[in-house]
Amino acid sequence: MIDIKVPTVGESISEVTLLKWTKKDGDYVERDEVIAELESEKATFEVNAEKAGIIKLAAISEGDSIKIGDLLASIDESAAKPAASNGKPVEEKSVDASQESGAKKTESKKETKKEEKKSEFVADVKASPVAAAMMADKKVDPKKVTPSGPEGKILKDDVLAALQNPGRKPGAALNSRNEKAEKMSNLRKTISRRLVEAKNTTAMLTTFNEVNMQPIMDIRNQYKEKFKEIHGVGLGFMSFFAKACTYALQEWPSVNAYVDGDNLIYHDYCDISIAVSTPRGLTVPVIRNAESMSMADIERKVVELAGKARDGKLTTEDLQGGTFTITNGGVFGSLLSTPIINIPQSAILGMHKIEERPVVEKGQIVIKPMMYVALSYDHRVIDGRESVSFLVRVKELLENPQLMLFGKDPVKTLLEL
Length: 417
Hints:
By secondary structure, this protein is an alpha+beta fold. The protein has helices spanning about 95-120, 130-140, 155-165, 185-200, 215-230, 240-250, 295-310, 315-320, 385-400, 410-415, and strands at about 1-5, 15-20, 30, 35-40, 45-50, 55, 65, 70-75, 205-210, 260, 265, 270-275, 275-280, 280-285, 285, 325-330, 345-350, 355-360, 365-380. The strands form 5 sheets. Strands 9, 12, 15, 16, 17, 18 and 19 form a 7-stranded mixed β-sheet that branches. It has a 4-stranded antiparallel β-sheet with strand order 1-8-6-3, with no helix packed on it. A 4-stranded antiparallel β-sheet has the order 5-4-2-7, with no helix packed on it. A hairpin with a 4-residue loop joins strand 4 and strand 5 (about 45-50).
C-alpha cells in the first residue's frame, strides 16, 4: 500500500484546499495519472498517482482545507488491473461483415451527433454531472443558470430553479432577503492579507497622467495582420506598455527597487508582473527579463501566462519574483483608479479604458483616444520627482512608439544631448 500525501509547495505555505477529485474511491489508476487538484495561496496544482493500482481516497470533501503532509489517498499496488469489458456476447448467427460495419458506422454517427448536441449546452461550463445531463436533456442555456456551487459550479438545484423560473434569474425575486455564507479560498485569503499589508506597511501615493493612444492604435491597425502572420500571435497594447516601462525603469532604477530591512535592493533587470483576473481571484504571473524581449516575445508570454492563469495551471515559479507590476482595469471599463502596490515591489502602473475625449493640440480642440494612466508608488523608496518623471517617460514612449526602437530620440542621440 502506497500513501500519497499533500506535497510541500512553498516554504511559507502550511495548508491547501482540495478543489476537485479526478478519481473515485475504488478506481484503478495508472502511474502518474492525476488523482486530485489542489489550490495553495499562490496557485493550483495537480497530484499524481505514484504507482498503478486501486485507489482509496481519504475522507476529504471538495472545498476542504488540508495540511501539508496530510494523507490524501492510498494506492494498493498489488491489486490486479480489472479486465476490459468485451461488450455484448457474440451471437452464433453469422452476419454479413459489410452490413455489420455499416450498422456500426450509422450508430457511431448517431452517438457523435448526440454528443455534439450535448456539447452545445455544456461545453466550457462548470457543472456537476447531474446538472450537465439535465441541461443537455432540457436544452437549458448554461448562461441563464445562476450557479450556487463552489468556484461558480452549477448544481442540480440551480438547473431546477432555472426551469421553474424561465426568463428570470433565480434569486431575483422581489423583496428577497436571502443571505449565503461562502468559505474564502486560500487564494482569496492571501489576496486579502497582502492588500491590507500593502496599505499598512508602505507609504503609498499615486500620480496620474494621460496618454494619447492614437499612434499605437495606428501602428496596430497597419501592422496587426502582418505581425500575426509572421509571429503567430496578436499585437496587443500590453507589449507596448511593457516595453515602455522597461526603458523607463532602467532610467529611473528606484522605481524598480524594493525595501529589504535597512537596505534598498536595486535590479539591473526588469521582471514585469502582469495582473490577471481569474474566476478564483487575482493572480500576478511574471515576465522575466522583459527588457531583453522583443514585442512578439512579450505578446507570446502574455498569452501563455494568461492561459495558464485561466486554466489554473500557474506554477509557483510563474508567480515568484517580479520587480514591477502592470495592471489593466480598462478591460473591465475602469476609467480611473489607484492600483495597490504588489509588495515587496515599490510601484505599479495602472492602465485604464481608452475613451475619446476633446484635447487641445496646437491651439485646436480635437478628439483623441485618450487613456488615463496611474502610478502608485512607495514614497519610502521613490521620491515625487522620480515617480512623475517615470510616468512622463512612459507617456513619451507610448505617444512616440518609434523611440522604443532603442529607447532614445534619434536626433538627440545624433547630437549627443
